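hi! just following up on the protien thing from before. the input was this:
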Amino acid sequence: MRVSEPRVSIITPSFNQGEYIRDTLESVRRQSHPSVQHLVMDGGSTDETLDVLREYADVDGYDLIWVSQPDGGQSDAINKGFDRAAGDIVAWLNSDDVYFDTGVISRVVDHFDEHDADVIYGDFAYIDQDSTITAVDVRPDFDRGKLPYRILIGQPATFFRREVVEAERLDTDLEYVMDYEYWLRLAQRFEFRHVQDVLAGFRSYPEQKSQDQAAMAAELESILPQNRYETPTRFDIFADNIWTELSCLTRGITRTMSLHNDPPQLAFDGEFDLLLRMFTNLPPEIGDIAKVLRRW
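and the predicted 3d structure came back as:
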């Protein structure tokens, strides 16, 4: 038994996400872990975001700190949050994403106790604009050599030991792939571990910036040349991706059935989609395949 519970700091970069940020705040506020600090770094929102933040700032038992001022973009806001984070474990959760259930942070602390890793990432669920859970995304286990051609890590389901964010910060020149570039850089000096645990909900909707495939492709082209590891042959890449997708699909079916039959206490006001519809959402989308091909 621990003498004291580790403190966990969550940084949320925010700008004009008033439509979704309430779910994000709730998903942190409802965590059962007794020591969670939530830092919202707002870039000067002009929608209802600040009204929501003022409302939650007075909620008992919720350690929310927020500031609203101009910044240099999402990466800059996250780095400023890293500067202020007091936790032994640190993460960032975007203002349209959520933690999945009320026990996520407690389980993350247990995962760090169990594994000798600097960075831990789990699986995540896709949620839509109405917070309906549409699919479960089971991530592959970590393999540093696959990073240049394989999407291994889901950002909202990723957590760091404090020394990681003290040593390395996000590249503020990047707008679309700063998380991917961060994984490439961290993998040079830190240990990653995948845990088979749904930790977060990633909200997918047409207006989000990650839907801009052309802009993402351009930034990827700018970072991959200086982050090339020893690359396998194209046949090996193709074979590995087929095997990985089949493995993740099999585990995704099992996990989807388990969550549907015995749903956890969600940390946000959401609900599961029909089981059959969730099954049809499991295979990789065209956009996912395109991202893999670009890493060739």
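Residues 8-294 form a domain with the Spore Coat Polysaccharide Biosynthesis Protein SpsA; Chain A fold (CATH 3.90.550.10).
The first helix runs from residue 21 to 29.
cheers
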